[in-house]
From TrEMBL:
Pfam families: adh_short (PF00106). Keywords: NADP, Oxidoreductase. This is Uncharacterized protein. The keyword Oxidoreductase applies. The keyword Transmembrane helix does not apply. GO terms for molecular function: oxidoreductase activity. Belongs to the short-chain dehydrogenases/reductases (SDR) family. It comes from the Eukaryota.
Amino acid sequence: MASFVAANINPLNYFGGVSFVPDKNIPDLSGKVILVTGGNAGLGKESILRLAKHKPEKIFLGARSESKATEAIASIKSFVENVEISWIPLDLTSTKSIQNAAEHFKAQSQRLDILLLNAGVMALPPGETELGHEIQLGTNHTGHFLLTKLLLPTLLRTAEEPDSDVRVVSLSSVGHNLAPAFEKILDQEKLKKVNTNTRYGASKAANILFAAELARRHPSITSVSVHPGIILTDLYNSMSGSSAFHALGSKAIGMIGTSVPDGARNQLWAAVGANKEDLVNGAYYVPVGNLKQHNCYAQSKDMGKRLWEWTEGELAKISL
């Protein structure tokens, strides 16, 4: 826990960056189709609200709970009336749910300009997805990998259009510094036995590796990973309830954390705020727009390739 707090507050993670005010600096999004996972609360909901103000053609909100999604959509529309937002049922621990979500999306749209892989879990007790993956890696990485894979034909088709600017933004964290050795990330039985912060770190390292490898394999798509900063969201609830020590750490983060509106800025900058030519494809950014060009996961072609192939192999075990 102490190392997690230290990783978050290290000032070296935040030197540099750009000025970005979403309401002022997000361009007109007319004609753009956007999908945001985990859009019912926190950074996802805030991102949809900010995007909705700039006239996108349609926004898809991926979330498990219909009631929470409906409530979020109503809340957003109370601020922005003339926007089309559609809920897509999505449980990232369920391959069937992800398959259904992709089909649901494709039945409603022939294009996808922005895929914001925002959903995530943190500090969970031991558990696994239906695929048998450690719960945090399986949700944060494998679930998003499968969703992107199923939507890839739509993303690539959109990228072929004149003046296209297709982007996939993966939400990572400086928590990637807590990841175990790479071999342990690929060995799910070993990964399940380490502490929750190490397991979380593995999932965040995987997010960076995935974004970088997606950029290498499909350069017509701009794919980057981002750290939002120390954000006061529901993610810390599970941490504060796990022990008195973790509760103290959660309180410390709460004292130095930033608000959700400010926390959404980095992913919004990467998704729509930055000019396409100013983004380094496959890179990892900390707030706001601060390129971490020496990040080992973003730079490692070997780890990126191996994680991609391992994930595809795992998904091959199910019927797609």
